[in-house]
Structure formats: structure tokens, C-alpha cells
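Q: I have 187 residues here and want to know how they pack in 3D. Can you give me a structure?
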Amino acid sequence: MQTIFERPKTLINQPFRYCPGCNHGLAQRLIAEVIDELDIADKTIGVGPVGCSVYIYECLDIDFVMGAHGRAPATATGIKRALPDRIVFSYQGDGDIAAIGTAEIVHCSVRGECISAFFINNSTFGMTGGQMAPTTILGQRTTTSPRGRKQAEAGFPFKLGEMLAVNEGSAYIARVALTKPQLIKKA
């Protein structure tokens, strides 16, 4: 019988802790598939901070370092400079990378650091109850914007990827959605 799907060997065989409908588990499975495909698990180091992103340590069988809130790009930079032969990435939610950690990812990009950053944007502060985040879209309802985000009150959503894309140090920026099979294939 033909095998259609196998769990990536880098993905630890245990249930995800994420809320129903959350795409963290899917994103982490895709990262594990790439790590397996490139056969780089023994050379890869991930950096995760706080929030829902922190559970990645329980999901991928690679080396991990925990970075302070918003500081994963700075931590990843230090690791990459100390161990230049390693593949280093950060895995961060929007409350981390697009709020408290904005300076770190911007300057990492400006310097052209040789790391990858996975930005998981669910447009809320998910782990703490679904409050409005810098990335919350106009009209989106959250626990702190029950009538929806209004530009006059909270400004426009922060489009971090588009901002980083203009930096010469950014090698590759992509915005993808994991909401449909066709989009998952593109990711």
C-alpha cells in the first residue's frame, strides 16, 4: 500500500497544546518536514520566546534555546555568530515579534543576519486571552476591542513583513496563510 502521509521524524509524537483552529501545530509540522527533507536536524537550533510559541520546544526534536520576550532574534544572532555552521531560526508570535520585539527583528534585518524568523500572526495576544495586538486587523473583535479595532482609536494594523521587505538585509520575506490546502502547499 502506498504511504500518503507520515509524521515527520523531527516532529515529536505527542498531542499539540494549541487551541482548536490554531495554526501553530500546522506551522510546526511544516517546519519539521523541511528539516527532515534537508536532513539538518542535527545542525538546527531554534529560539522561541514566550506566548504560544513557547510550546515549539515540546514539538520539534532539535536543539532549542529560550529567548526573553521579544528577544529571540537577538538570541538567534548570538548563536549564529558563535556557531556559524548551524542553521538558526526564531519562532515567534505577533505579540512577541511585532510588539515588544520589533526593534530586535528590525535591526536583525538591517544587519542582514543569517538566521530565519518564523512569524506566526494570529492577530491577537492569544495565550493571554485574545486581546488586541499590533497586528489586529481593522474591524476585528478581540477581548479588548469588543466592537472591533477602529483606526481612530488604535491606529492601523502593523504590517511587519512589508516593513522588513524593504531592508536590503532581508533575504526572503513571505506572507502565507495556512487556512486552505492550496495555501498550505504554497507555504
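Q: Anything worth noting?
A: The first helix runs from residue 24 to 38. The chain is about 30% helix and 15% strand.
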